[in-house]
């Protein structure tokens, strides 16, 4: 039929009938598509198989890699291919309907895919068919999809999707008071670190003199910069700085080494699934750090450490180690240089005292104050403790009394602690009884252990140390937070982070060694080494800590008075005697976190007074003990991270239970997983019987089909709870959320003073949240307040989400195709929001639609239009149609607290901010823009006035990262320079069109580092561009084919090993290399003639030349040879990259 029509059309076309001629061309095109259908199908199968083969190759390399990790590009490509694969499946289904079935095969299996391709290739095109036009359309779409898949597949190469592991710097928290002496110590340490012969530096001084503060100051100054803030320049920028607290409970040398290895491997992301020996770990660590500039800061060293056994060998040319200890005999054999930290001078001590206490005007009191400060022995924390004790006190007699106490004779036990015991007792005696008990409980943990604040409050509450007017867990948390703040304000405890505290070492020693009348029962026993615990110890001690202990346990200890037993991380604990708990009827707290137990003994049912049971991360524990219902007084049970598959229905009979935390085996996304027959995870009507339950955590994993099948009934149970204040829960869809919101008694409970914020804390997810951005599935930063996180990852109706969003301080919106802007949620509902993540919302065109604010809000005064005033972090990922962050005018005060702004994969963005928006973001500190292909400028200064002052714009920005922006032309086109008064670092990677950096950063006086590609830097048309930037350059180069291999070792990087293709090119990867500069250094970069000119000049001994060569630029070879020849005759340090 087609042939006959073609003849008629051909005849007609010869007579000049144009419409028929066009028809002929149209039909011939369709015929060609039909003819190529099988060929196109074969090609697309081949391309898909190629992609998955390449991905498998990358994954294998990742599994074996020590120094590499996935880049953001890897996750983007995988997500794109998932979308393409879904379309491919649709096309295959149509092909099988129109033509004939394909043999079953697995696209990930190369041999299986090859067989199918052979079958399809042998099939002849079906031209004469009623489905002619459908087949033509299908062939055309397959061909279009083929091009898209080929583009993605070509990028799935190791050089493009792997990168050197990025070790993020960590800021350690400490009370920083600027004292000249501390700055001098830091400068001295840095000076030693700059000398090649000093690979290991020791910090020595008595307990409490401030060694840890000096170490923390050193960490924070060297973690991200090539120069310290106190004037001393570091010759080399460290690739990473690792802070290590040497565990005091590790007495055996192997335990110390293993503990340090754990910290290092955790920070360097070197931990594998299987536990390895100390020797194997040492080799892994050494291989990773041997040729890197690293700094290890090891604090509180109490025994000699063989650092070679750790993996930090002394022959690591670029490695440095700083160790702090109070024992000179221990540290001397380990170091090359020593810095002795002495007590504060009288001047520094008085300055510190007045910093805490305030100005002292009375001349007589001032004289007493000087004597008090001298009595503190120059110990910073003791000075602060006494200063706080006297703050606001004007009575001279009180000051004299404090002086008398501090100068009185010290008990023999505390001779080595000098006046610390008296100072501590001053503060301790001032505490209320409940505060004393709370403080003494902390001695169960060593001074180097970070104690989770929420956990500590739970223990305090279980021991009934907190004085509460209402017996509710929520009230206990609030009272506990107040107590923690009071104790840290008085320097009796230290904030280690927003969520952790520690007790200062010498205060802990005072508590353990000094007797407190009437409080002896609050002193705990903590066994050291592996000494056996005597029967007398078990009988008399009321609170016992066996954390990481190796002591052998009795089969049936008599512990009639014991109230707390902590056995966390007891790795040798596999079984407990069946009668172990028989004589512990008064036990209130039992913590077996991370123990290796497989089951609990039957005597667990004897713990009739037990209030808190922690079994979290007991991976081998598969079931709760029989007769668990006898634990009638249990208030908290945590069984997350166990192998327990089903919650016993007897849990529902624990009518005192206020906190339940459970998880089931699968966590993470299982979107394509099959629903297996499993036991009922939570029997119906179990949770609803827990009438006092306030906190509920159920971790079932995203897209867990077994959970989804029972979720609705569990939601009905949870909705019955009247006192619920904390909820961590996954709703499979909006329907289940609507059910909870409609029926929840706790959400409607307004009979308490929390009526406007019924949920104190929540972590709620809706829908399947398979995130694809390169920053992890969770981005938080809501501290120290309780986290209220909402993740919405379904394309369903958004109205039911608004009620929870009103209370949320963290919101993640993932994969919603109906949302055009965040304004769809009505910005009146997001006033408390501090963190916002938006990902893969295909139709979002702007983050905030300013034109809709007036419609949504009742604006009477100008301040009424302020929105998102609390937002601190904003992340926008993979928003295909995003054209602006804010559309329309910005009301002053909106986004005023935004500190971090990150954009990734937004291909329609051309500018990031305009002048008005940049002015509004007065708190912005960090900006990152990556993989946004159409961005032309970062700040679009579209104002007409020439005299507008931009010097105050973005003045708090410290770091700017610009990555993979091929069309970027400028940061800001304005002729008026911006402020940039705080800018310390800027990274410019794969932004080859950027030229005006010297104008944009003219006022960046604090700029220390520009991270860029060598090819970009050397092609600046004006040498002036470089001279105007007072910074240290980190110049990157193209990775050579044999990077990371020894000379002569073979490489397959230059050729694809793909089983289906043989000549695919490999993308280049860039690798950062440090290029330090100081008064004795010159940086050589550019043409070979420039090298010749530099080398012909005379240099004195010790001059350092850094030569960055390009492996693809043979013009530099002669200069390189000259460099080596000249340096061999002088005292040069060569860094050739």
From TrEMBL:
Every AAA+ ATPase domain range: 197-345
Any one GO MF annotation of this record: ATP binding
Pfam family, one: LRR_RPS2
The entry's keywords: ATP-binding, Leucine-rich repeat, Nucleotide-binding, Plant defense, Repeat
Feature: compositional bias, Basic and acidic residues: 1046-1056
Stretches the record annotates as Disordered: 1040-1079, 1096-1117
Compositionally biased spans, kind Polar residues: 1058-1071
Gene Ontology biological-process annotations: defense response
Family indicated by similarity: Belongs to the disease resistance NB-LRR family.
Cited PANTHER family: DISEASE RESISTANCE PROTEIN RPS2-LIKE (PTHR33463:SF209), NB-ARC DOMAIN-CONTAINING PROTEIN-RELATED (PTHR33463)
Protein name: Disease resistance protein
Lineage: Eukaryota, Viridiplantae, Streptophyta, Embryophyta, Tracheophyta
């Amino acid at each position: 039929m087609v042939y006959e029509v073609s003849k008629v059309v051909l005849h007609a076309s010869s007579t000049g009938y144009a419409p028929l001629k066009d028809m002929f061309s149209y039909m011939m095109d369709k015929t060609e598509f039909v003819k190529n259908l099988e060929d196109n199908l074969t090609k697309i199968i081949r391309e898909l198989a190629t992609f998955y083969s390449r991905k498998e190759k990358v994954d294998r390399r990742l599994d074996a890699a020590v120094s590499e990790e996935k880049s953001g590009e890897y996750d983007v490509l995988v997500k794109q291919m998932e979308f393409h694969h879904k379309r491919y499946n649709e096309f295959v289904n149509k092909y099988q309907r129109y033509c004939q079935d394909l043999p079953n095969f697995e696209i990930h299996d190369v041999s299986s895919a090859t067989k199918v391709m052979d079958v399809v290739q042998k099939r002849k095109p079906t031209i004469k068919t009623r489905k002619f036009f459908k087949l033509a359309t299908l062939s055309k779409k397959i061909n279009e999809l083929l091009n898209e898949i080929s583009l993605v597949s070509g990028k799935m190469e190791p050089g493009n999707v792997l990168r050197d592991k990025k070790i993020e710097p960590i800021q350690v928290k400490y009370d920083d008071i600027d004292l000249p002496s501390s700055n001098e110590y830091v400068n001295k340490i840095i000076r030693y670190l700059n000398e090649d012969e000093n690979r290991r530096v020791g910090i020595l001084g008595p307990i409490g003199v401030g060694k840890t503060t000096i170490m923390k100051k050193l960490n924070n100054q060297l973690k991200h910069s090539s120069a310290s803030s106190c004037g001393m320049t570091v010759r080399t920028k460290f690739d990473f700085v690792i802070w290590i607290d040497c565990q005091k409970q590790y007495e055996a040398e192997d335990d110390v080494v293993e503990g340090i290895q754990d910290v290092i491997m955790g920070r360097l992301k070197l931990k594998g699934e299987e536990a390895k020996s100390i020797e194997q770990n040492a080799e892994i660590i050494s291989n990773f750090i041997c040729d890197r500039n690293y700094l290890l800061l090891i604090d509180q060293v109490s025994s000699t450490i063989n650092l070679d056994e750790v993996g930090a060998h002394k022959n690591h040319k670029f490695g440095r180690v700083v160790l702090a200890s109070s024992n000179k005999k221990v540290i001397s054999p380990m170091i090359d240089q020593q810095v002795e930290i002495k007590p504060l001078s009288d001047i520094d001590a008085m300055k510190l005292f007045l910093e805490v206490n305030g100005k002292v005007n009375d001349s007589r009191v001032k004289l007493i104050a000087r004597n008090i400060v001298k009595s503190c022995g120059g110990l910073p924390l003791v000075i602060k403790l006494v200063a706080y004790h006297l703050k606001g006190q004007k009575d001279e007699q009180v000051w004299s009394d404090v002086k008398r106490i501090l100068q009185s004779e010290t008990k023999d036990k505390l001779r080595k602690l000098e006046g610390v015991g008296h100072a501590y007792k001053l503060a301790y005696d001032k505490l209320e009884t409940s505060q004393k008990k709370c403080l003494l409980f902390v001695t169960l943990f060593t001074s180097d252990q970070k104690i989770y604040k929420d956990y500590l409050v739970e223990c305090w509450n279980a021991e009934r140390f907190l004085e509460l007017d209402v017996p509710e867990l929520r009230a206990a948390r609030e009272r506990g937070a107040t107590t923690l703040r009071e104790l840290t304000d008085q320097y009796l405890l230290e904030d280690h982070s927003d969520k952790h505290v520690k007790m200062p070492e010498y205060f802990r020693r005072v508590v353990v060694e000094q007797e407190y009348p009437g409080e002896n029962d609050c002193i705990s026993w903590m066994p050291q080494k592996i000494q056996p615990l005597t029967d007398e110890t078990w009988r008399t001690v009321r609170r016992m800590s066996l954390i990481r202990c190796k002591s052998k346990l009795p089969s049936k200890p008599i512990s009639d008075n014991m109230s707390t037993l902590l056995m966390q991380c007891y790795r040798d604990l596999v079984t407990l005697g069946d009668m172990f708990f028989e004589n512990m009827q008064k036990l209130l707290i039992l913590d077996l976190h991370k123990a290796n137990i497989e089951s609990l003994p039957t005597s667990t049912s004897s713990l009739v007074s037990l209030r808190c049971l922690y079994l979290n991360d007991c991976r081998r524990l598969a079931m709760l003990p029989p007769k668990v219902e006898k634990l009638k007084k249990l208030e908290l049970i945590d069984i997350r991270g166990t192998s327990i598959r089903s919650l016993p229905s007897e849990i529902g009979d624990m009518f005192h239970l206020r906190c339940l935390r459970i998880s089931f085996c699968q966590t993470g996304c299982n979107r394509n997983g099959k629903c297996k027959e499993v036991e009922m995870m939570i029997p119906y009507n179990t949770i609803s019987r827990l009438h006092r339950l306030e906190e509920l955590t159920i971790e079932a994993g995203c897209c867990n089909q077994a959970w989804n099948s029972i979720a609705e009934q569990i939601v009905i149970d949870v909705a019955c709870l009247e006192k619920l204040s904390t909820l961590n829960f996954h709703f499979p869809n909006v329907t289940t959320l609507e059910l909870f919101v409609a029926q929840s008694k706790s959400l409607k409970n307004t009979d308490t003073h929390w009526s406007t914020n019924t949920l104190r804390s929540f972590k709620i997810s809706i829908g399947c949240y398979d995130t694809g951005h390169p920053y992890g599935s969770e981005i938080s930063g809501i501290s120290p307040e309780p986290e209220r996180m909402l993740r919405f990852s379904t394309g369903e109706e958004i109205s039911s989400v608004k009620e929870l969003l009103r209370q949320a301080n963290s919101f993640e919106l993932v994969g919603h195709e109906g949302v055009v802007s965040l304004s769809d949620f009505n910005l009146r509902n997001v006033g408390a929001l501090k963190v916002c993540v938006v990902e893969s919302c295909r139709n979002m065109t702007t983050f905030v639609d300013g034109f809709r604010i007036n419609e949504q809000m009742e604006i009477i005064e100008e301040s009424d239009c302020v929105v998102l005033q609390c937002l601190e972090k904003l992340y926008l990922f993979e928003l295909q149609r995003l054209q602006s962050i804010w559309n329309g005018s910005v009301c002053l005060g909106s986004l005023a607290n935004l500190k971090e702004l990150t954009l990734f994969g937004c291909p329609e963005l051309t500018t990031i901010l305009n002048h008005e928006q940049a002015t509004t973001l007065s708190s912005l500190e960090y900006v990152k823009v990556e993989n946004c292909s159409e961005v032309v400028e970062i700040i679009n200064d579209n104002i007409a006035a020439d005299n507008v002052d931009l010097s105050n714009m973005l003045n708090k920005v410290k770091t700017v990262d610009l990555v993979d922006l091929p069309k970027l032309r400028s940061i800001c086109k304005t002729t008026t320079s911006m402020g940039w008064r705080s800018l310390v670092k800027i990274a410019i990677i794969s932004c080859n069109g950027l030229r005006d950096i010297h104008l944009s950063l003219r006022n960046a006086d604090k700029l220390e580092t520009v991270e860029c590609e060598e090819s970009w830097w050397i092609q600046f048309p004006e040498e002036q561009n470089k001279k105007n930037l007072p910074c240290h350059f980190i110049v990157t180069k193209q990775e050579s084919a044999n990077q990371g291999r020894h000379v002569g070792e073979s490489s397959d990087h230059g050729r694809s090993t793909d089983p289906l293709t043989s000549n695919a090119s490999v993308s280049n990867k860039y690798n950062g290399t440090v290029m330090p500069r100081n008064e004795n250094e010159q940086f050589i970069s550019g043409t070979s003639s420039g090298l010749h000119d530099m080398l012909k000049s005379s240099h004195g001994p010790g001059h350092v030349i850094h030569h960055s060569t390009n492996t693809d630029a043979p013009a530099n070879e002669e200069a390189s040879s000259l460099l080596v020849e000249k340096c061999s005759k002088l005292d040069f340090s060569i860094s050739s990259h």
